[in-house]
């Protein structure tokens, strides 16, 4: 009965594989006395056919058999039915073969001739090893699930922390409050018009929300200046893509698209942008999309020294600059996204107080 306990909740079944009918009969009687229901196979090939029809927690297999020997059968079982315990049966002169089978995945072996007590002990040992292996497998599976859940929580906290940093930046510049959220929504609308794959959409959304995070390193006196910027001040502001990229690169190595948005959203289609002077399709698509969304929101947002543009005028400016500053493909997609929106247009002079919902 100890053998049955070692099986736990498994069916009390074993498969006996031997080309000698008399040996199969002996083993069947021994195992039946221990409470096992036994099936038999006269060759390795026949054993595979039986295993394809039924599952067995335990296989007792002779080594020397026609068609498919014990080692070959063991290899098949390990590959196709790895939870099945295999106990090899060899002659005393074949102990070296048995050791090789242990190295190949057998859980124990019997040498002929054997006694009832030897069979019981070896089978018990094999089943106990199997139980430990299954317990270890279950533990690893549970551990992997717990690690994945914990990793997801950390990822959520990481995203929330970065978004809080972006929000803190917008508090520094009250006239662009909500800018990153609007840019992200515009960018996602463009991306959906372009039918981008989901993996790119996720990173685009994240990168566009954080595209201006490098402005955390821009002087507040410049950010909040009541008037147009001087050439030197503008150059200072335009350092923010690289500042943001350097800030986020160590934290977002597995999000290259989002990082590309942060670094390259001020590149120009004609190659006269910053910081790397990229042009055309050398500019990452997500950055080209964000450039259109960012410029549209900048044009339609009010500043202390000017009102925001009307939507029609901002779209006209995007179209005028398509092919030079912007990717024409992205401009056209944004125009289509706006045209398909049923949401009433807000008062763009108070853009910072409202958000255009161009997608549901």
Helix amount: 55-70%
Which superfamily, in CATH terms, is the homologous superfamily of the largest domain? Hypothetical protein af1432
CATH domain class of the largest domain: Mainly Alpha
Number of helices: 15
Shape: rod-shaped
CATH architecture level-2 label of the largest domain: Orthogonal Bundle
Q: Which fold does the CATH topology of the largest domain refer to?
A: Hypothetical protein af1432
Number of strands: 5
The computed structural class is: alpha/beta
- Average pLDDT metric: 81
Distance between the termini: 65 Å
* Content of β-strand: 5-15%
Q: Biggest β-sheet: count, sense, barrel?
A: 5 strands, parallel
**Low-pLDDT regions:** 1-9, 342-360
Strand order of the largest sheet: 2-1-3-4-5
Descriptive overview:
This protein has 360 residues and is an alpha/beta fold. The protein folds into two domains: 141 residues, Rossmann fold; 181 residues, Hypothetical protein af1432, CATH 1.10.3210.10. It has 15 helices and five strands. A five-stranded parallel sheet has the order 2-1-3-4-5, with helices on both faces. The longest helix is centred in the middle third of the chain and has 57 residues. The radius of gyration is 35 Å and the shape is rod-shaped. The protein starts with a helix and ends in a 21-residue tail after the last helix.
